[in-house]
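Can't paste images in this forum, so I'm doing it all in text. The chain is below; anyone willing to post the predicted structure tokens underneath?
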Amino acid sequence: MKELVSILDGNTFLVSDRRGDIEPSYDFPTGLFSFDTRFLSSWVLTLNGERLHALSVDDTESYRTKFFLAPGEPTHYLDAKASVIRSRAIVGSFEEELTVLNHSGAEVECTVRIEIGADFADLFEIKRPREKLGKTTVSVSADELRMTYRREAFHRETLVKTSVPAQVDANGMTFRIRIARNSRWTTRLHVSSVVYGARGEDIRATLPYGGSRSADAIRAEQQELIDRAPKLGCDCQPLAGAYRRSLNDLAALRYESIALGVRLLAAGLPWFMTLFGRDSIITSLQVLPFLPELVPPTILMLAGLQGHRVDDFRDEEPGKILHELRYGETAGFEEQPHSPYYGSADATPLFIILIDEYERWTGDAALVRRLEPQVRAALEWIDTYGDLLGTGYLWYQTRNPETGLQNQCWKDSWDGISYADGQLPGFPRATCELQGYAYDAKIRAARLARTFWNDPEYADKLEREAADLKHRFDRDFWMDDRGYYALALDADGRQVDALTSNIGHLLWSGIVDESRAAKVVEHLLGPRLFSGWGVRTLAEDEGRYNPIGYHVGTVWPFDNSIIAWGLWRYGFRDEAGVICDAMLAASEFFDGRLPEAFAGYAHDLTEYPVEYPTACSPQAWSTGTPLLLLRVILGLEPQGEHLIIDPVVPPGMGRVELLDIPGRWGMVDALGRSRGPEEQPRDG
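Text version of the structure:
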């Protein structure tokens, strides 16, 4: 894959090559996208009919990029008589300033051409191209190119304007220019991506930001968020760099929801620039100790769209929390079920966990009381629709075999759940971490019922159910001959015996019997699962292991952050530090930005983490990973009106100081230092 350059603001983003050019692609989403539609599929610059080459690219800011270009092949750069600067930004709309510089000693005439096209592809059509079912029309004027797509009530438009006159045709703009010696020529191009509603209104114009902002406003808004976050001082440069990059990316990933007009975190560029139940909840858990004000919009959006009926096409059921919300053509015409789609079994218990964790940090009792009906409905779903076989476990099987997801746990690729020999179990499936989430959700909901809903009987009932679940889970999932919990139960109650990273989520949930914890930890940090860069999704000796397979051998940073949190919960602080160290070491090879996933090759085989070719970056729950690791390192845990601080800093990391940690206690500071060689490890 060519090296690509991305800029974004909210869920509007642009992906180009290193020259700044966009060419139609059906394997990776290159182009200008907003709300799941590609508004530019071609944007190619030539000077006197010749393509340009990149001298340098300045992409230090998330929302803008500057390309320094020259005509000809690289060997001719020294003799170039002209150069070009493309300065572009996503500021709601897309703007590009194009400057041609004359380096010769005489006046020159030249032709600048930009080829422009819009295929209005839905994001789901990028990998599965098809003939568009609507009609595209093009109109031109002296300074404007308008491309319009209509399919019944679905209406999208790309409008390109130039600040200087051009010869505009249906395929682009041509500028015939004269530049004095040692002088320059400039034009400013403005590209509007218009999303029309059912009544013909520009939906984006109705949002609080009106679909357009200045670069100064974006910079100020992002800086304001960064300034609100706790201040990190540390001796560990990888930690400092990853923390700074995470805050920058969190600021960039916020977008305005069409549905409610609130600011939400998009899940990841380029494939997931929208609200996801699971991803958004886990990201919220990661960022909660640092920027708690980012969390309520996600909670309220998920609560507002909670399932209320049985809809086979959307996998919707009463009380169920959505998986994914899309705005594109295929969702609008019900060719995909994402309007919204409810195909995840874990988002519902995770929703309950997030609400409890949010209150524990912030003391926002009003939100807990307000959402009592939604939490009760989610608990009811776990015990009814979620328990497909009536066995007291949480199962999944799609109601929509044509376009629904087969796997509805976080490893939701088709082969993400397998036996040790590589065979795939039938449906329904009950993966182990789902049971852990359900256990934790009931324990936490019991606290909410007793403390805020004045319903101690319900609280007692939930705690009895959780205790029973923990007992049965240990009986039915533990494999004594293997020394770890089964990945899942199949429809016949047989154990799906592959060794996976899912067992780390069990530690986080608290469902693991204390007597089993050491064995589980031994596997997580053993050579079969731990690559040296992190815990693999699947052990390297399992039948489906592939170090570059999406869920069958890669290392996922978010997964590792949850595992580290689980190790911390059970007192394995040094082991948690090993994972923190590995993740931060890996982050250095990605300029501080952990990607969605990277290859599972062993550390001694590659000496650097190998990129996964189509990984999202930035991705929200990878962006949140350094924050959760920092929480684990400093041992931050809310307890009543106080924040417990119990740091165990990995050896060699030195001083770690976090100032102004927000919460119900006001602002507090945390300081930790790694142990000297003479100090003994503390007890777990």
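The two ends are 46 Å apart (CA to CA). The CA atoms of residues 547 and 553 lie 4 Å apart.
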